[in-house]
Design brief:
Number of strands: 7
Number of domains: 2
Distance between the termini: 66 Å
Helix content: 25-40%
Amino acid sequence: MKTWMKPALVSMVAVFAATMFVVSPALAKKDKKGASYAAPTVTAEQAIAKVKTALPNLTTGKGYIKTGKRGEKNLEVTLVHGGQIVSRVKVNPSTGEIMPKGMKVLVQNVSATQEQAINIVKDAIPKFEVGSARLGKHGEWVVDITLKQVTVASVAVHGGTGELIPDWKASRDAARW
C-alpha cells in the first residue's frame, strides 16, 4: 500500500466510526417506536380493583423532612402495605395540610413535626379513594390515590402479576432522611 493512502484510509475509517457512533442510538430509538416494555397482561380495571382492596390495609410509615437544593424543606410520610413502602404523601411543612401530588412549596422553617404529619396522614387514610390508572414507563399501572378528588399519591401495580410494586425512591428517601 502506498504511503499517501494510509492517512486517507485512517481518516475515512475515523469519519465512518464517528458517524455510526452518532447515528446508531437514533436508529435504535426509531426502531422501538417508543415502547421499551412488554404490554401488560393486567388490565387497568384489575389494577384499580387491586388498589381498592389494598386501601384498607394501608398504614403510615416513617415521616421525614427533606432539604432541597435551595434549602427548602419538604415534609413527607410514607404509605406502607404488607411491610413495604408503596408510596408517599407530601404534607405542607408550614400548615400541616396534605398537599396535592406535584405541588411544591418553598418553606425554610418547618412548623409541623414529623409525628404531627404521620397523625394527619393516618387520619386521612380512611378517606382515601382510588382515582384513575395510567400506564407507567416500564409497563406497570400507576393508580392515583385521591383525597377530596385531588390526587395525593400514586401506587404502582405490576403489569404482569397484578401485585403492588414497592416505591424504591420513597424507600431510599425514608432511609436517607
